[in-house]
Amino acid sequence: MNKILKLAIVLFLVCAVAAGALGFVNNLTAPIIFAQAQAKTAAAFASVMQADGYEEIEFDKESFPTVDTIHRATNGAGHVVTSTFSGAQGNITLACGVDPDFKCTGISVIEHSETSGLGANAASTAEVGVKFRAQFVGQDESIALSNAGGSIDALTGATITSRSIAGAVAESIRVVKSLG
Amino acid sequence: MNPKKQFTEGLITNNPVLVQQIGMCATMAITTTLFNGVGMGLSVLIILTCCNVVISLIRKIIPGEIRLAIFVVVIATFVTIVDLLLQAYVPALSEALGVFIPLIVVNCIIIGRAEAFCQKMPVGACFLDGIFQGFGYTVVLIIMCVVRELLGAGRFGGGLIDVSNGFRFTLDGTGAGIQIFPESYGASILSLPFGGFLTLGVLIAVMQYALKKSELKKAALAEQAKAEEEKEEDE
Amino acid sequence: MSEKNERLIFDVAYQPQVRTTVDTRRLMSDVIVAMIPVAIVAVYRYGWHVLVLMLTGMASATFFEWAYRRLLHKSITIDDYSAAVSGLLLVMVLPPQTPWWMIVIGTFFAIVVVKQLYGGIGKNFLNPALAGRAFLTASYAGTLTVVIIDGTTMATPLSYLYGENPLPFTVAQNFLGKIPGSIGEISSLAILLGAAYLIVRKVIRWRIPACVIGSVALISLVCGHAGYGRVEWMLHNVLSGGVMFTGIFMATDYATSPVTRWGQAIYGIGIGALTMLIRCFGGFAEGCSYAILIMNLTTWALDKACHRHQFGVSREDIAAARAAKKAAKKEAV
Asked: What residues of A are in contact with residue C142 (Cβ under 8 Å)?
């Protein structure tokens, strides 16, 4: 009994110190991480559409399960749709701008866990990623990869990632259309 | 324990990946660009050193029955701290490595060193062990990254080096690297997990071959010396 | 004399008991000869450059085999022609627009990684040529998943069969090879000529090819497809893509296919079934090469499960031995 008590106390003390250290570091970094996440979303919005402010609007979540949020640009430039869908490895979170003619104004990958060097290029700031995302500007809901009769060239070695992003863009345009 | 011997052990004769063959999951998964490799290697080096020191410090008060539980708590603490710090200050690296930073918790290198080395050694030796083993790990990651990135995409130093406006290091992971031959000629399967298995397998084979050869050489030298000694004695 | 001493005594000599003049070199030369009709059709359809590709494949495969064994101070095995055959087979399953340097990379992977790293001829567990093809297709998917003739991308019969547009070829055209496809896979007639030669020369046996082609035929006959007659659909499925060529030349590879009768049957049917599964549900148009690679991996298990008992041992003996083993295991527990 004494032995077990001793083990428990030692383990408790170690855990307490660990918890304290973690709490301290978390306190220190939480605001920075939060600010970064916000800045990232804002940057993603800014890169897909020119607007000075946004207001979040309601939509039919049941018909469009992959869509997370829709923001309407206050200057009438259109809507920004964020959606989460599965890519080749895990979920991808994408911001897609849709103008009043239901054309895509740009896309930006907010979060992903695609293969580094292949699917991850979709979010890359290097030339290959910028080129890939630029193809989406001006597309309508009939968007498709070039091997399926569309005009989007898939990323090298990442057909699944490219296809699922194209699908999400089409879905984003459809959800904005459904708003009327 | 002398530091020089520890250094050769960490880098070559007892290299964590190539000889002990531990911590191979992340080694195969993330070594697609030099930026990932260096970042992962340094993260492990820092975590390993901190864990080694702390475990060595408290080694006398840890009861044997619950030592593994305590190791795991210590390791998880340091990994989470490094994870949070990376998210806050080097978000590009945190994004590139994704789940593999939290997964360092279950990386055998750290618990392996704690179990095999730190629970019986003084703090100084453990500190050096962390640095040298971490360095050995980093070197292997860098070799794998260079091989896979070059053969898979014809590139060197992706994420870490940028040459568009003169040579500079990009610590935020945005550099495109140096394109050595056009990417379309690269065997991109080497950037996939398959390439990780293949490269690591070949590296381990080469390492074992070299170790065996040097051992044979040493044995031959020792025999020669012995023979000469006997000869002298005879005379 | 007691009963115990009354035993038959056999005079046993060391192996081999039967000697023939058949060696690896003769078998491999026969395979090359059997591919001549296929090569003629390929040159007729695609032009002389495919002949250059074939020679590149054979030469580079032989070179890599020689270089690897030379560097590691092993016996030089290039004069059994097995490397040259692997190189030639690799070229045959690639589309005609494949650049020569890709073939060099492919043969490097096939010979050095798949064949030599595992010990050389007879010790590889995957078909080198198919593994080389899989390596190249995964690396250069953009170039190798289409067929380009004279600068225009052509749709292969399989992409029509499993796509939306109706097939513009008749069964006869498909059989004679008036279709676009990989270098060696276009003319089923030429492939069958080669197969007949191999079977007459006893280089391959009929069992594995028959099971591969038969199971593809049976599955497609049973399933059918809207817009095609059942028999028409079956014939197109058998004649298109790599079923004929890989079923005859690759699935019969000695080192990577089972030696037992039932093992060979299951192996062949497995290849056919997997091919049809990949065609119907997979991401690639053609799954034959992957089907063979997957079944290569099961070869050791199939041989183990289907092995025949020693000569002279009856079924009762085997059952008794098995029961004894089980009892011993139980006791040990």
From this structure: 156
Asked if residue C266 lies in contact with residue C295, where contact means CB atoms within 8 angstroms, the answer is no
Confidence of residue B148 (pLDDT cuts 50, 70, 90): very high
Q: Please report residues of B whose CB lies closer than 8 A to that of A15.
A: 73
Within chain A, strands assigned E span 54-57, 67-73, 79-86, 91-98, 104-111
Q: Do residues A173 and A79 make contact, with C-beta atoms less than 8 angstroms apart?
A: no
A55: phi then psi, degrees, rounded to nearest 5: -130, 135
* CB neighbour burial string for C44-63, b if at least 16 within 10 angstroms, e if fewer: ebbeeebbebbebbbbbbbb
Interface of C with A in 103-162 (CB under 8 A): 138, 141-142
**What digits encode the pLDDT tens for the residues B49-70?**
999 999 999 888 888 888 889 9
**How many domains in chain C?**
1
Asked if residue B140 has pLDDT above 90, the reply is yes
Average pLDDT of span A145-172: 82
Hey, which chains touch B, using 3+ CB pairs under 8 Å? A, C
* C-beta atoms of A32 and B85 within 8 A: no
* Range in A75-84, A149-158, C254-263 the model is least confident about: A149-158
Nearest CA in chain A to B67: A11
Q: Is residue C311 part of a domain?
A: no
The label of the residue with tokens 């492990």 reads B44
Of chain B, the end-to-end C-alpha distance in Å amounts to: 40
Q: Is the peptide bond before C16 cis (omega within 30 degrees of 0)?
A: yes
CA distances from A83 to A47, A63, A175 (A): 16, 13, 11
User: Which of chain A's residues have a Cβ under 8 Å away from the Cβ of B58?
Assistant: 14
pTM of the model: 0.80
Structural domain includes residue C127: yes
CA C238 to chain centre: 16
Three-state secondary structure call for residue A105? strand
Domain span at C60: 24-305
The answer to the question of residue C101 being in a domain is yes
Residue B1 is predicted with a pLDDT of 63
The chain B residue lying nearest C137, using CA atoms, is B189
Q: Residue C214: count other Cβ atoms within 10 Å of its Cβ.
A: 16
CA distance C279 to C296: 19
Q: What is the pLDDT of residue A110?
A: 84
Q: Which of the two residues, A74 and C211, has the higher pLDDT score?
A: C211
Is residue C319 assigned to a domain?
no
Domains of chain B, residue spans:
3-234
CATH number for the domain harbouring residue C125: 1.10.3430
Compute the distance between CA of residue C238 and CA of residue C83 in angstroms, rounded to an integer.
29
